[in-house]
Structure formats: structure tokens, C-alpha cells
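User: Here's a chain of 316 residues. Predict its fold as C-alpha cells.
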Amino acid sequence: MAGKPNVVPTAAILIVAVFLLITFWRNNLEMPSYGHSNENGSTTTVQKSGGQMPEPVTVTVTVTAAAAAAEPTAAGEEKLVAAPNTPVEQVPIAPKAAAAAAVAAQQDQPRYIFVDLGANGADSLETFLQTPSAKFKYNFPTPPWATHDEAEIFLFEANPVFNDALVYAKQKHGALGRRITIYPSTVVDTKDGLRTFYLDEVNSANDYWGSSTYKNHPDAVASGAKGTELSAVNIARWLLMNTLPRDFVVVKMDIEGAEYDILPHLAEMRVWTVVDVLLVEWHDNLPTDEARQAAIKGIEKLKHEGVSCPKYDSAT
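Assistant: Prediction complete.
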């Protein structure tokens, strides 16, 4: 009978071989970096051999310790009760995050907005701000939570002769902390694009107030009905894009007859969603009867939907 094979030497050889293989692997191959937690909750980092550790990034976190407390039971035994969470360290708020939060909070606040259509040489701006040297007086409506100085102001004027005055007004009032945005050489219209604008070149004493989109305006006719192509803005679309229902929006309109085109369009575009007050200076000698009736119908629709339209006359 053949005897059992002797397995002990074979097993010993295999164990020695595995040991040698592990030793070779540890001595000759790079070890990756691992982290493990100790009993006290700290983390130990093992550096990978043959390389350099990257620069550490310091991160501040809040660690909450839940200590277990023993509470006796009715049977005299003890059971573990979790203690209230105890903050160990407060997380500091990063400056950028704080700034972003402040901006977000500010954006959630209603704004007081004055939109001046036909700003001329910033005359009505001075009146709005109640400057003592203003050419005329008018108390523009304000919300109960803001003053004229706190308003965001947008000035639209088509006549290029007032470009300098608008730029200087922006610089002057901007230095005082007022928020002024100007749209020089810009026609208030029912669509974006280009529009022919007829210049008044004869009424220098009245700041060329007869410049108009109407070729038959008497002052434009006296000036030879000289038309020039200017940028035009769909003012209804602009209002809907740049204001919100929670804002208090005052629109002043003194645009030498163009109100007969604009008012029906404002009603059609439902700007009562964002406009609170609309002040219109009428120029009755320009439109056809049909245009006049359309404008009246438009402003009555705006009033019906809640837009306040008090009487306005700039006397300029």
C-alpha cells in the first residue's frame, strides 16, 4: 500500500513563498496614501513613498459630539441616553458667501424707479430730485418706504443736442451716490430698431422742444423737416424686462406727440403689471382723430387696470 503524501513541507514552502512575495511588494512598490481614524476620532495620514504630499487645504467644519449618558431604569439597570448635540466649533461664513447673501437679500427688496421719457437736458431730473435750481416744480409720487434720492433713474432722450447735458447729469449725480442710467439719442417707440426723428432747430430759447417723430410738428416743419435715423427702443418691452410688480415704478412721458403711438401699445402689452404711475404731457395739435381716440382708449385701459394717471404739465 502506498503511504500518504507528506503535505507539511509543501505547505511550509507555500507560506514562505507568500511571505517573500509580500516583502518584495512592500519594499519595491510605491504605497498609496491612506487615512484611517484612531479611537479618539482624529485622522492619521500615511504618506505615499517616492512622492510629495500636496499642500494641505484647511477646511473648518462643525463637529457635533453626541455623548451617551447613563440613566437608571426602574429595574435598577442602566440604559444609554444620547445627550443633546453639542457644537464644538462654529463654521465661519466665507466673505464671498456673505457678499452673495447680501446681494440676494437686496435683490429681494422692492425698488423705487423713475423712468423719464423725454428727459430733455435733464430738466425733469432736477425737478424730480427737487433741486432748488430746477426750471419747474412738480412733486413726483414716492412710495412710503423711499425718497426721491433713493430712486433708480432712467433718462431717455432722442434729441442729440442734449447728449452732453445727459452725460454731465449722470456724472454729477453719480458722484452724489445717485443711480442714473442714460439713453441718449434714443427714440421711445413701439419696436426696437431705427426710427426717423425730426429735429427742431429753431427754438433754442425753449431747448428745441419741438423735435419729434412727427414730421408735421410745427417746429420740425419750421426747421425744414430734417429727419435723422436714431436708435429706437420698444419701451413697453423695456419696462416689462427691467422692472417687477413689487417695484414702485413712475413713468413720465413728454415725447412731443409720440404718446399717441405709445399709449395704445402700453395697454396692448399690459404694462400695468409693472407700472404704478404714468404722467403724460399731451400734445393735442399733432395726431389724427383716430390716433387721439386710440391713445385715450389706451390710457383709460391702463387706469382701469390700476395705473394712476394724474394730470401732468412740465411747462417746458
